[in-house]
Design brief:
With 304 residues, the protein is an alpha+beta fold. Helix 2 packs across helix 8, helix 6 packs antiparallel against helix 8 and helix 8 packs antiparallel against helix 9. Belongs to the ABC-4 integral membrane protein family. FtsX subfamily. Pfam families: FtsX (PF02687), FtsX_ECD (PF18075). It is found in: Cell membrane.
Length: 304
């Protein structure tokens, strides 16, 4: 098979169907950008889970004089009850599961609240008496918070035991739903891209039906006839894939690292190295999609 002749046929086909080629490039670009965004979002979710779950604490809230849940009955926890909880945390039963813990007084809780909600109207409505004292516990294995709930939940003076991971789960559920939505949109766009590539190849073959007829008469094999059309589809899809790769890198570099990382410095975000890992996936997906679509389209056309 002469490479020069094949490449000449490819160039001729791209020129004849320039508008359709541009359409393939744009559709592939948009669809693979969604694919890249979905991959990055899933990588971000995994990274955030690893980052925050390891830092999630278990809060053991003590009763206040306003508490009505648990066994509080509007009676504040006494120093003896606080000391009993501390003794349990230091006991041989719980100590092997605990990394560190510290006690937060009502005044410390109030100071932290004022710092967190500075400038918010709710900060003026809160007094130290309304906020509970609490033990903040870091577990060696954050998934074993149920052990604390079983050991401390029934003690007098304990209002509630809250695992911060329960709040994180809600956030990650939303992020997972967003990731699935992006994947769904990307799948629809990929189907549209595959159909458009197939249509483009069939139109290109139809416009060159006389050349195809002549090649058949001189004994050209189906493989020789099909190859230029398949390459046309791959070239157009690769152009779209390159644009999608650039878009993914740009999103990470200028939005994620340039804006989000500076706005939320306490959170770990995906970086440029993660985006560069996604780019080959997009290039491979675009080339494979185009090759399969073009091969099916031209094979069916040659059978007509």
């Amino acid at each position: 098979m002469r490479l020069g002749l094949v490449l000449g046929e490819v160039g001729q086909g791209l020129r004849r169907n320039l508008s359709m080629v541009i359409s393939v490039v744009l559709v592939t670009f948009i669809s693979l950008t969604f694919v890249g965004a979905a991959i990055l979002l899933q990588m971000q979710i995994t990274q955030m889970k690893s980052y925050w779950f390891d830092r999630a604490q278990v809060a053991v809230y003590m009763c206040t004089e306003f508490s009505t849940v648990g066994g509080c009955d509007q009676q504040a926890a006494t120093p003896e009850q606080v000391a009993l909880v501390e003794a349990q945390l230091e006991s041989e039963t719980l100590a092997p599961f605990i990394d560190t813990f510290y006690f937060e007084t009502q005044q410390q809780a109030y100071d932290n609240f004022q710092e967190q909600f500075a400038g918010d109207a709710v900060a003026d409505l809160i007094t130290p008496e309304l906020l509970p004292e609490a033990f903040w516990v870091n577990l060696i294995d954050p998934t074993q918070s149920a052990i604390l709930a079983d050991a401390l939940g029934g003690l007098a003076g304990v209002e509630s035991i809250v695992d911060q991971r329960s709040y994180l789960d809600q956030i990650f559920d939303i992020l997972n739903a967003s990731s699935l939505t992006a994947i769904g949109i990307a799948a629809l766009m990929l189907v549209a891209a595959a159909l458009l590539i197939a249509t483009t190849i069939r139109l290109s073959a139809f416009s060159r039906r006389r050349e195809i007829g002549i090649m058949r008469l001189v004994g050209a094999s189906n493989r020789f006839i099909q190859t230029p059309f398949i390459i046309e589809g791959v070239v157009a899809a690769l152009l779209g894939s390159v644009l999608a790769g650039l878009a993914v890198v740009g999103i990470v570099q200028f939005f994620v690292q340039g804006y989000l990382a500076e706005t939320l410095p306490l959170t770990s975000f995906v970086g440029l190295s993660d985006a560069l890992l996604v780019v080959p996936v997009l290039l491979g997906a675009g080339a494979l999609l185009a090759a399969l679509s073009a091969n099916v389209a031209i094979t069916r056309y040659l059978r007509v």
